[in-house]
Amino acid sequence: MKTEFTSEQLADPATATSAGAIRACVHCGFCTATCPTYVLNGDERDSPRGRIYLMKAMLETGAAPTPDVVRHIDRCLTCLGCVTTCPSGVDYLHLVEHARAHIETTYQRPLRERLLRWTIAKVLPWRRRFALALRLGRLAAPLTDVLQRSAFTRPLATMLELAQENAPRPAATTDAPCAAQRRGRVIVQQGCAEPVLRPEFRAAAVRLLNRTGYDVRFAPGEGCCGALVHHMGREAEGLGFIRRNVDVWSREIDAGGIDAILVTASGCGATIKDYGFLLRNDPAYAARAARISALAKDISELLDASSLPPRVNTPPIRVAYHAACSLQHGQKIVTQPKHLLEAAGFSVVTPTEAHMCCGSAGAYSILQPEIADRLGARKTERLEALSPDVIATGNIGCAVHIGARSHVPVVHVVELLDWATGGPAPAALKIGKETGTHAADA
Ligand code: SF4
Ligand code: SF4
User: Fold this and answer.
1) What is the DSSP string of 85-145?
2) Whether the CB of 141 sits within 6 Å of ligand 2
3) Which residues have CB under 6 Å of ligand 1?
4) Partner of 343 at 20 to 30 A CA spacing, among 79, 137, 302, 317?
């Protein structure tokens, strides 16, 4: 696609990156078939190609966009399904992030949206604030039905639903030495949402890593990975989180003996692997951020079938594997989690439309509840059609979003691997679902 940026505009590194992405697009439209919002809405402006046209026009003029342009860019899930499909290697991620930062600085959103976005940015990435908000949200549960009736208040209803379905619980943060022949030492990323919503994910990861031969270190002072606010276009805030983590983890690495920064939430993993790019123009951080990105690993990358501890117990259950977009499209980790589950003895099945986003996508399920609901229902229907005993995924957002819609318990892949190699049954299976299979009894 031909661009018309001026040389002054191209002197800005973000604009130069966006111009390269736009020029790489050959308008073929292959990406439209795998774009969830285009599949749902059938509107070219809700497709990757359509959005690239909108972003090109907006960034070339440098002016504030119209509400219509903002609406179509807001509807993008940043699922990166289009990046996997695109034969021309269009760097859609950095283009849409640049466009969102441009919107954030040039466009005045309606007051309600500004308040909602501010609340999300000031609460969700902070563990204590998020836990407190969940507790308060549980008290306000009776208001959910009333708020649900209007499109205007529906995002608030979604937040209350999240609170009702997820009681906050404390997560362990104590370093844990390995209990097997030592392979190495890893930092386990603590994150923001996962330890509040599903602390059992991290507990299972730590047990499994210890049993596999890894010492686990929790780095004091670490915070949110920055993805949540960065994807909302709040660039300075996002980079603030990122710099803080680079400082904290660099101290640990410099002290010696860190083999990897281990991530159990694939949404965070995709962003941490991009720290090097995001801070490439900051001389004080570029090299250290690149080193952090190189050390970041999803837990399914660190482990392989040969390194798994011996099987102690593999319950005869059928596992439907849901591939999170941030894992399959963002990090190109497609088959490893499934292979690990099979190596642990589970029967694993995958749904049709496995490439499609479930609609969670960070804060998207709150900001765009209607599309998120439709995608969540579509994904859940396809997973449940496999008649699984349990659904396994590698990302907290997907686990919560699908878990709220499915009768089948949803767990993290690592909980099943831990269970099969000597750990306890996943908490979701012990609790069970009212109308679902009590798989832990299988
Ligand atoms: S990131 Fe996902 S929702 Fe956005 S344009 Fe690409 S495929 Fe569509
Ligand atoms: S598949 Fe790639 S090159 Fe083709 S229209 Fe989509 S973004 Fe452009």
Assistant:
1) H-TT---HHHHHHHHHHHHHHH----HHHHHHHHHHHHHTTSHHHHHHHHHHHHHTGGGHH
2) no
3) 35-37, 48, 51, 76-82, 92
4) 79
Q: Where are the alpha helices (DSSP H) in 385-426?
A: 396-403, 413-420
Query: Shortest CA distance to 189 belongs to which of 261, 130, 271?
Result: 261
- Are both 208 and 129 inside the same structural domain? no
Between the CA of 336 and the centroid of ligand 2 the distance, in Å, is: 27
The radius of gyration computed from the CA coordinates of the chain, to the nearest angstrom, equals 21
In 292-426, the DSSP E strands lie at 296-298, 318-321, 347-349, 390-393, 410-412
CATH number, position 392: 3.40.50.1860
Residue given tokens 């441009």 in the structure block: 102
Domain span at 380: 318-441
Atom of ligand 2 nearest to the CA of 52: 7
pLDDT digits 0-9 by tens, 321-379: 999 999 999 999 999 999 999 999 999 999 999 999 999 999 999 999 999 999 999 99
Query: What span, in angstroms and rounded, lies between the C-alpha atoms of 306 and 268?
Result: 26
Q: Are residues 71 and 20 in the same domain?
A: yes
Residue 312 domain-assigned (yes or no): no
Are residue 207 and residue 220 in the same domain, yes or no? yes
Confidence of residue 149 (pLDDT cuts 50, 70, 90): low
Count of structural domains within the chain: 4
Render the burial of 155-173: b for 16+ CB within 10 Å, e for the rest: bbbbbbbbbeebebeebee
Q: What is the pTM of this model?
A: 0.91
Give 248-260 as a DSSP string: HHHHHHHHS---E
Nearest CA to ligand 1 atom 8: 35
- CA proximity to 305, closest of 402, 232, 212, 441: 212
